[in-house]
Design a protein that fits this description.
With 290 residues, the chain is α+β, with helices and mostly antiparallel strands. It has helices spanning 7-16, 27-39, 70-73, 78-88, 116-121, 163-177, 256-259, and strands at residues 18-21, 48-51, 57-63, 92-102, 110-113, 129-135, 146-148, 180-181, 189-193, 198-200, 209-218, 285-286. Helix content is 22%, strand content 21%. The strands form two sheets. It has an eight-stranded antiparallel beta sheet with strand order 1-9-6-11-4-3-2-12. It has a four-stranded antiparallel beta sheet with strand order 5-10-7-8, with no helix packed on it.
């Protein structure tokens, strides 16, 4: 299997700052991961909550190292890495991955933001970075699907700390560029630029919304330690500067999930432990209610 993006798809991404690829993975490939998560939704108690501006939290888990399990395999699949490198135009490496889950009735939102506001503070000079968001189960408006402002990646990095300015620019961007709800079926993927404005709403349905997000950086864009900032948006994840450096990533054959059907969903990939953030303005990690 050699899945590549077409010229038209690459042009769409460059214009819009995002691209939906239907059926990127099959439902059969993802069923073991979905079933494992449903059987242990706390992943042995390792999930925690990430708060929105209103203080509501949704379950999240983050990892950098990629182990010999399903969640360590998906970010290394040839079809994933090849498409990322097509978009970036150069070799990439794994930045981090995460689950984001919105259980039925979850009131937490993902506040509007650009990922590069955090990754800039990690010391990256250029926005040569992107994320693949993979639907582990269907995502629709009702259960809080990903939303993007198409073309907003061309606005450059916005000042997220100046809230009135940010909100004024966000509303103007929505008015001029529109708003897209990325409604997905199981196995559909969205690739989006690190400067693309995105967020998601509350889950007003009786269905959960589980997604896996894998982010990548261009090898040439390794962070500069001297350029690391306060990182109000990403510090809570507890990822160290050493973990942000370029590390070799072996691509795995696209049939790995099918050929190794006995591979565990998780357990061999270490999760990051969140850290306490210093105060007002910082994104917080909180313990989930049981």
């Amino acid at each position: 299997m050699d899945i590549r993006l077409s010229r038209e798809q690459l042009a769409d991404y460059q214009r819009d700052g995002y691209l939906i690829v239907k059926g990127f993975l099959s439902a059969d490939e993802l069923t073991p991961l979905y079933q494992a998560y449903q059987g242990d939704p706390s992943i042995d108690g390792s999930l925690y909550g990430m708060t929105d501006k209103a203080g509501a939290a949704h379950p999240i888990n983050i990892w950098v190292d990629l182990g010999n399990d399903i969640i360590g395999t998906i970010p290394r699949l040839e079809r994933v890495v090849n498409c990322v490198e097509q978009i970036l135009g150069e070799p990439c490496y794994h930045w981090h991955s995460k689950f984001t889950n919105k259980p039925p009735g979850c009131r937490a939102r993902i506040d509007w933001h650009q990922d590069y506001t955090s990754w800039y503070d990690d010391g990256c000079l250029f926005p040569h970075m992107l994320t693949m968001a993979l639907a582990i189960e269907p995502a629709a408006r009702a259960n809080g699907c990903l939303q993007v402002v198409p073309g907003s990646h061309r606005m450059g990095l916005m000042n997220h700390q100046d809230v009135p300015n940010f909100e004024a620019r966000l509303e103007a961007a929505k008015d001029r560029l529109g708003l897209v709800h990325c409604e997905l079926e199981t196995g559909d993927a969205v690739f989006f630029h690190c400067n693309t404005l995105h967020g998601s709403g509350a889950n007003d349905s009786d269905r959960s919304r589980l997604m896996l997000f894998s982010s990548y950086n261009a090898v040439s864009n390794q962070p500069l330690e001297a350029a690391i900032g306060s990182n109000e948006w990403g510090r809570f994840m507890g990822i160290t500067p050493e973990e942000r450096r370029v590390r070799p990533m072996q691509k795995l054959p696209d049939d790995t999930l099918v050929r190794r059907a006995d591979m565990p969903a998780f357990g061999r990939t270490p999760f990051k432990r969140p850290i306490d953030t210093p105060g007002e303005g910082y994104t917080r990690a909180v313990a989930l209610e049981t």
